[in-house]
Amino acid sequence: MSGEDQHRGLRGRLSGFFSTPPSQNHRSSEQVAKLMEELERQRDLKETYKARLESTQEYLRFCLEVAQEHGFLHLISDGAPQQSPHGDAEAEPATNVDTDDADEDYPAEAPPCDDPYLAATRNLAVQHGWSVAPDEIELHEVIGRGTTADIHRATWRGLDVAVKWVRPEFFRSNPSGEAFFAQEADVLSRQRHPHVLRLLGACLRPPDSCFLVTELLSGATLGEWLHGGRERRPRASSSPPPPPPLVDRVSRALEIALAMWHLHEQTPRVVHRDLKPSNVLLDADLRARVTDFGHARFLPDGKEALTGETGTYVYMAPEVIRCEPYTEKCDVYSFGIMLNELMTAEHPYIETSYGPSKIALNVANGTLRPKLPERDACPTGLTDLICRTWDAEPSNRPSFATISLALREIKQQIVQQREYNQHSNYA
């Protein structure tokens, strides 16, 4: 149904309510308000899609001009050789794998892989000992659900673990599903950092047996820890729970920054592309672990940028929303939105009535950022750091090395001030 048809339908339903007899109209005000909200949302979507279409057309024209200038326009029009859905950069880590030899070692019951990246990752798992057979896992209760997978508590080789089991319908409905899953397994298998979720094993047998085995954490996400399960717009009559202490919130931010510093310093660089509170888990000691690398990509030296929109609008960098080339600095922007959320203890843009599409449109054109924390409630230098992380120009955003050093100093300021206050109270 077109946007105009939807608007006409909403207008017709509105006119019907206004002609309803008073005896049948006791709930009409609430229903009219909902319809008006839906009408506004449809208008926002129309504006967003129009702006994105114009941006994409401009970028395509630019690409065609570059192709014509450098003499390879015919490759675009005639068709280029087929590649992995993730490109050569992502397939690069598996290029040294001898697939013929690895297949001989893999159990005979393993199904063949249609996607070459998945096949290479599966061979790598066998060679390095992190390949898991389906019958090795004893699944228990579901402790989390995502759009494509369920998270189970499970037992594997006597260990309590978490299992992210990708639903079979994801592979059946998504032609790039196998490569998408291989990407996450490949990226996670390379990580050894105290603040990145640790992969213990994986089963790569789509569509029915594709899962990741990871360390089992408390199950709480950063968002749950910060907001205490509050909804995005808490009722005015309810008293929201107090946020965690400031020093703890800065500590979580520092731990995430250290994890991202590690990812961005790798060769090739790892760009997370979906950094947000629900993708950060906490362990029993409340230390942060960055997780969910399903959208991650490798960005090797010599490659300047990635393309393609991915992530969550509220945390998405403006250049990604505009479908422009982008670098690892898109993660810095997402981190800046999270850092501000940690400091204010409020969901981004809660002070507005905008939906995700209108937020994206205004972020993309540079007219919107979340409300900053109050100056007197914020350590020295923190507000400036937040503003630098979400700068409209990616090159102006600091690296995670710079962010980590700054947060370390800010945390030390808080600790020293707290010790001073305690000493003053005892004096």
Count of DSSP-assigned helices: 15
Return Rg in Å. Answer: 25 Å
Q: Tell me the overall shape.
A: globular
**How many domains?**
3
Show unreliable segments: 78-108, 231-237
Order of helices and strands: HHHHHHEEEHHEEHHEEEEHHHHH
- By CATH, the architecture of the largest domain is named Orthogonal Bundle
> Structural class from helices and strands?
alpha+beta
- Count all strands and give the number: 9
Query: Which fold name corresponds to the CATH topology of the largest domain?
Result: Transferase(Phosphotransferase), domain 1
- End-to-end Cα distance, whole Å, is 72 Å
The CATH class of the largest domain: Mainly Alpha
Q: CATH homologous superfamily name of the largest domain? A: Transferase(Phosphotransferase) domain 1
Helix content: 40-55%
Q: Output the strand order for the largest sheet.
A: 1-2-3-5-4
Tell me the fraction of residues in β-strands, as a range. 5-15%
Profile the largest sheet: 5 strands, antiparallel
Mean pLDDT: 81
